[in-house]
Design a protein that fits this description.
- It contains seven helices and 17 strands.
- The strands form three sheets. The chain has a six-stranded antiparallel β-barrel. The protein has a five-stranded parallel β-sheet with strand order 3-2-1-4-7, sandwiched between helices. A four-stranded mixed β-sheet has the order 9-8-11-10, with no helix packed on it.
- The C terminus is likely disordered.
- It has three domains: 201 residues, HUPs (Rossmann fold, 3-Layer(aba) Sandwich), CATH 3.40.50.620; 60 residues, Adenine nucleotide alpha hydrolases-like domains (SH3 type barrels), CATH 2.30.30.280; 87 residues, Translation factors (Elongation Factor Tu (Ef-tu), domain 3).
- With 363 residues, it is of the alpha/beta class.
- Strand 8 and strand 9 form a beta hairpin.
- Helix 1 crosses helix 6.
Length: 363
């Protein structure tokens, strides 16, 4: 009897090709679509999962084209509690969270496993571009062959016990190869548009979402070089480290947010070099491959950047210090730092603080 797999279906090319490849490989495939929030706008595929009501018909059409069973699971309440509310709270204290990582960790993968157990499935599968091997019962998560599409960064926080039962068929495929495969069973016409935006923010108006979600508290915008107050902001939740736009401060040369002082409700701005950081503290660690107390790695501090070389020093079970070989642009508290050794993802955590040559007035 063939192994059964529960596949997360959004209706987009990536998740549909994932189901197609597994079906062609002899698996008993069943599709599941998660309803995560209410949004009447045209929705995009994010990490191979459906987000809102507007994508449900697309996912159903995709499952029908594939000839597989399909069901819809309403997770709106859980998604709001574990992703949207923490997202808002993080910005309220001057952090820059990554909700996609938290959704994978707390919503999507745990619920896929729960459904798999309920329906007698051996595996779960998603359309993420990453590779996964099981060696001596331990999951080894690696970068995808298509580096431009690699999504391993978004999976570092998924529990190892779950990863042991995950299939990622797109890890050794390029995006072009996936599109060609899609044409074989005529799903290109129902492809949903890809997006790098946050799925639950209406019209992708990120700035407006935060303004409407958090009560503003005005505070000073301070020149990091002179200590002078240059103006006033309308809430620290509207700013992130490295930000240049919407500062509303007239200067002869570009200025960037270089620190957010929560205790003083102050935004510090300075020249570009002050947004370059040498080291940082990372908290809430999740290890996929346990490491020694001090090791060499490459570190990625945002999904769109190349991982950069440095050292990782483990402080305790939950914290580590990262020191880069070269200063890096704007690692923001709340974002994730993910550690690689070669192509293997060994772990990661949440950035809580960064260090640079910041003037004493900002410390």
């Amino acid at each position: 009897m063939s192994s059964k797999v529960i596949v997360a279906i959004s209706g987009g090319v990536d998740s549909s090709v994932t189901a197609f490849l597994l079906k062609q490989g002899g698996y008993d495939v069943e599709g599941v679509t998660f309803l995560l929030h209410n949004d009447n706008d045209k929705e995009a595929e994010k990490g191979s999962f459906n987000c809102s009501l507007t994508s449900l018909k697309v996912a159903q059409k995709s499952a029908h084209a594939l000839g597989i069973k399909h069901s819809i699971i309403d997770l709106r309440k859980e998604f709001s509690q574990k992703v949207i509310e923490p997202f808002i709270c993080a910005y309220a204290i001057g952090q820059t969270p990554n909700p996609c990582i938290q959704c994978n960790r707390h919503i999507k993968f745990p619920n896929l496993i729960k459904i798999a157990d309920e329906r007698g499935a051996d595996f779960i599968a998603t359309g993420h571009y990453a590779k996964l091997k099981i060696i001596n019962s331990s999951p080894i998560l690696m970068k995808a062959i298509d580096i431009k599409k690699d999504q391993s960064y978004f999976l570092y926080a998924v529990d190892s016990n779950i990863l042991r039962r995950v299939l990622l068929p797109l890890g050794d495929k390029t995006k072009d190869e996936v599109k060609k495969l899609a044409s074989l069973f005529d799903i290109s016409s129902i492809e949903s548009k890809e997006s790098q935006e946050i799925c639950f923010i209406k019209n992708k108006r990120y700035y407006d979402f935060l303004k409407n979600s958090i009560d503003p508290k005005e505070g000073p915008i301070v020149d990091a070089h002179t200590k002078k107050i240059l103006g006033y902001h309308k809430g620290i939740h509207l700013y992130t480290i490295g930000q240049r736009r919407k500062l509303e401060i007239a200067k002869n040369e570009p200025r960037y947010v270089v620190q957010i002082d929560i205790s003083q409700n102050a935004i510090y701005i300075g020249r570009k070099e002050l947004a370059m950081f040498n080291s940082m503290i990372v908290d809430n660690l999740n290890w996929l491959t346990p490491q020694t107390d001090f090791f060499r790695a490459t570190i990625k501090i945002r999904s769109t950047m190349k991982d950069e070389p440095g050292f990782v020093e483990i402080i305790d079970k939950k914290r580590a210090r990262v020191v880069f070989d070269r200063p890096q642009w704007a690692p923001a508290p709340g974002q994730s730092a993910v550690f690689y050794r070669g192509d293997v993802l060994v772990g990661g955590g949440i950035i809580v603080s960064s260090s640079s040559k910041l003037p004493s007035s900002c410390v």
